[in-house]
Amino acid sequence: MKFETLRLKPGKEKALGRRHPWIFSGALTRIPDHLKDGQLVQVLDNQGQFQASGFFRPGSIAVLVVSFLDTPDFGKYIEEQLTKAIAYREKLGLLTSAHTNCYRLVYGEGDQLPGLIIDRYAETAVIQTHHPGWLPFLEVISNHLLKQVKYVFHRPADKVSGVESSWLTARPELYEVLENGHRFKIDLEEGQKTGFFLDQRENRKKLAEYASGKTVLNTFSYSGGFSVYALAAGARKVVSVDISESAIELARVNVQLNGFDERHEAVSSDVLQFLKTEGGSFDIIILDPPAFSKSRRTIHKAVQAYKRLNAKAISEIKTGGLLFSFSCSQHMSPQLFEDTLRAAAIETGRPVRIVERLGQPADHPTNIYHPEGTYLKGLILEVT
What pLDDT does residue 158 have? Predict the structure, then answer.
């Protein structure tokens, strides 16, 4: 297994002592023109001493560090990290749960495997690669996963150009999972993320604590996860809203699958427009939009979009209502998100208080050296 060699500028090795898994291009003496995206590299200090190994990326983040130890057998090291990641989920009780069979098995830097996501859906594992460096290791990864599951699907992220999604095993006949006792049909091949928003599992459970007897509006509802939990908890009525017709149809299917269709309405509509005309009818509103910002350059526009959306929900919701508001934009910090919602509340002039702060579940762990791994932020607000 061949590693290309990169060298750090004098003094830059001190930054690696903080064990952040990204090495920026400005810390390197020279980047050879022939290096390709995802190529294996080892990084040496200016004296030629080993510092780290990982994948080269063109751009400001030049190296994604997989190991700070000299590991010549990279395939074996990856297997070891996969074993640790799976053992951690076993410790969380997910591997043996009778009520939940879908969860995240590998979360990038949180499991020291940057750019690699693996989600488990019952007997199927979905591998999502975020750079081409993982492609030569797909067989190693798949064989390791087959100790846990029967089927493996590779679904590269959009940025891995020229690679199509493919089954690495036979294809299952049914895509249905169980989460906290609720049944969900999922779209592994064409759905958002890897098929389901696994990161909202505990927040859906939290919603259930407040939903009994309430009217609930679930916006950006996708496959209806929050809707099913609210209905199961005894919500009087739930309306799912998403601009995508296919998402709305999937939400209908999942509500019917759990036997709650009589108290559910599914609407294909622009969320802001729906809030303007119907927002005042609800005791609880859930705002779970897609990431409005995927880079630091667009964070200002994202802040304005979150502010407009939350201001409209706060202004329209019933007095005493609860707003569950989320951001999955990695570049929006928890403090910036809270400040943005504060600005939205100020704009409405209504009394608002923070009930709870929410985040991502334990199977989406944050490497303490990589705070950027904490991407999901949520607030429960009461509008009095």
Answer: 82
